[in-house]
Design goal:
alpha+beta; OB fold (Dihydrolipoamide Acetyltransferase, E2P); 2 domains; 6-stranded mixed sheet; about 25% helix; binds adenosine-5'-diphosphate
């Protein structure tokens, strides 16, 4: 049996402050949904509303077709992993993993098998007799994941599970989490992170949060290629965000016409808008949408050079591959980009 998660118009308030504002979001059964956004945007609050640790001021939370809004946490069939592992220091690994099973009053005879299975899945079978203090951070986090999986949850809630780990461990654990999800394809996952790499790597879809609100939601590719808002464009991947004016023929940047697709809805002639072009899609040399400018900074990044170019007072970033020589500072260059690589973002979609 598999079940998804649904937020139906969920708001959470602390005192008079709304920290989650009218969230509508569905995580399909078996889907990995990342909640991505800066610190304080309401991600953890949304996750805690699913877990049952905060009660919405309004709206309902569903797991599968069950309205769980008024259920206590232990009746929700949820596994949860948080940044700080939260293992019991006085219990051995096996007893930590067994904890949730005992609390749920699973038949005693079944518990050892379920513990062994969960430790096996997370590669921790050899450590069952150790205490948490005898484990590294990465191993403790594996135990926390084993504990969450032992109850065979329909829904797994992960709150910044990798942020206490160093960079190398983190990328290993990312691959582990992806593998675990392939082994448990029916489990729906809500994954809170402020790290776009984690979201892009693991998630089937990403819900972008900012200031208590859902800003955007889509597959990583959709958000990267067709961001709807400036916030998404700059938070998911790197972006040039250029202020342009809409004309009957297209748009202009500092008075110069550019050839970019203007969506039928939205931008009316005369309006200002923002043009999003990804730095790696900006080329050096002549081409469509040629922009003349002066190099103000060059960074060598191994496979690419990042050029910062002043184009009529606007800073344009270009990530250029296979440059044999580093271009000189202050030299005049021409950049270009293909019309189909530009996305026009209507002004005012992101209020602020
Ligand atoms: P995120 O997970 O995106 O970093 P949170 O959901 O943890 O954000 O927090 C959203 C906002 O709610 C923040 O401004 C935070 O300070 C506030 N907040 C969280 N928990 C509480 C609480 N128990 N009491 C008061 N304010 C809280």
């Amino acid at each position: 049996m598999t079940s998804g998660i649904r937020f139906a118009d969920v708001s959470v308030r602390y005192g008079t402050t709304t920290v989650l504002d009218s969230l509508d979001l569905t995580v399909e059964p078996g889907e990995v949904m990342a909640l991505l956004g800066p610190s304080g945007s309401g991600k953890t609050t949304a996750l805690r509303a699913v877990a049952g640790f905060v009660h919405p001021a309004s709206g309902r939370v569903f797991i599968g077709d069950r309205d769980v809004t008024d259920l206590p946490p232990y009746k929700r069939g949820i596994g949860m992993v948080v940044q700080s592992y939260a293992l019991f220091p006085h219990l051995r690994v096996a007893d930590n993993v067994a904890f949730g099973l005992k609390a749920r009053k699973e038949p005693r005879a079944e518990i050892p098998g379920r513990v062994a299975e969960a430790l096996e899945m997370t590669g921790m079978a050899a450590y069952a007799r150790r205490y948490p203090r005898e484990l590294s951070g990465g191993q403790q986090q594996r135990v926390a994941i084993a504990r969450a999986l032992a109850i065979r949850p329909d829904v797994l809630l992960l709150d910044e599970p990798l942020s206490a780990l160093d960079a190398q461990l983190r990328s290993g654990m990312l691959a582990e989490l992806a593998r675990l999800h392939r082994e448990l394809p029916g489990v729906s996952v809500l994954y809170v992170t402020h790290d776009q790499v984690e979201a892009l790597t693991l998630a089937d879809r990403i819900a972008v949060m900012d200031r208590a609100r859902l800003q955007d939601c889509g597959t990583p590719q959709e958000l990267y290629r067709r961001p709807r808002t400036e916030f998404t464009a700059s938070f998911v991947g790197n972006a040039n965000l250029l202020p342009v004016r809409v004309t009957a023929a297209g748009v202009t940047l500092a008075g110069r016409p550019l050839d970019v697709p203007v969506p039928a809805t939205g931008a009316a002639p005369g309006a200002t808008a923002t043009l999003c072009v990804r730095p790696h899609l900006v080329g050096l040399g002549e081409g469509p949408n040629a922009l003349r400018g002066r190099i103000t900074e060059v960074q060598w990044r191994g496979a690419t050079h990042r050029l910062y170019v002043d184009v009529a007072g606007h800073r344009v970033k270009a990530d250029v591959r296979e440059l044999r020589e580093t271009p000189a500072l202050d030299s005049e260059v021409t950049l270009h980009f293909a019309p189909e690589d530009a996305v026009l973002l209507a002004a005012g979609v992101h209020d602020g």
